[in-house]
């Protein structure tokens, strides 16, 4: 029996020997991380520096890009270190820090997408009242709530998880997550499991139901409105919908994998899908919004042109 005083590290068994391509894998993942940081930082700076982009939609986008940096930083540095290591271990403190980052990132992403759908709903369905409803104070409150609730929920979860006694220290993944850690506990974890399920499903399904409601309202206005209204809705809602679908795909697999036995799924596929929501979303969002949002695209083009000149 291994008790909590003896568990100073966890072993990550999701890694395997990559042989001669170890350094190739390292540099590919490093290049992905550099691209994620570079593209998200670029768009954050573009939004912050240009006063023409100081509008609610772009403020929420800025929060979304900050979250992509936050989530990817919770994974990639650890991933890069582990790829070059012969022994894939992580200290308990670093493991719990990664748990905090990964789970709060997912919750912030869903809540951020929900307030963005609310912003689109007001802009398309209530254009005359938009400036009255979406004030600077309200924007600040919405963004603050988007970050505060997940962080507070994770502090509570980790305060319940950290005192546990563990009967093992093997995590069958390439990074730490709550369910993998809790499964190693010797003591009763009913309260933690119930709290985890409640926090996860209330955040995800609450956000998705709200998004569904706002888009039903937007669709009704589009069908009854003019071609101009329809075109505006399509241009601003397409990247948002694509982002929701992309993230939901990755997050749903990760939730299923953490709750059910997925040993019949090939190991490589399990690893890829478990990393999907932490790697593809931070890549996908800056590219999608950078290309689709006309104002951002034009400012980025002018920056590139001026740099070449």
Automatic annotation (TrEMBL):
CC terms in the record's Gene Ontology section: plasma membrane
Family annotation (PROSITE patterns): G_PROTEIN_RECEP_F1_1, G_PROTEIN_RECEP_F1_2
Localization (cell): Cell membrane
Annotated ranges, domain G-protein coupled receptors family 1 profile: 39-289
Membrane-traversing stretches: 21-49, 139-160, 194-216, 237-256, 268-291
Principal place of residence: membrane
GO MF annotation: an example: odorant binding
Alphabetic keyword roster: Cell membrane, Disulfide bond, G-protein coupled receptor, Glycoprotein, Membrane, Olfaction, Receptor, Sensory transduction, Transducer, Transmembrane, Transmembrane helix
Record InterPro entries: GPCR1_Superfamily_Member, GPCR_Rhodpsn, GPCR_Rhodpsn_7TM, Olfact_rcpt
Membrane topology note: Multi-pass membrane protein
Gene3D superfamilies given in the database record: Rhodopsin 7-helix transmembrane proteins
Family: Belongs to the G-protein coupled receptor 1 family.
UniProt cross-references to PANTHER family, sorted A to Z: G_PROTEIN_RECEP_F1_2 DOMAIN-CONTAINING PROTEIN, OLFACTORY RECEPTOR
Protein name: Olfactory receptor
Species annotation: Maylandia zebra (zebra mbuna)
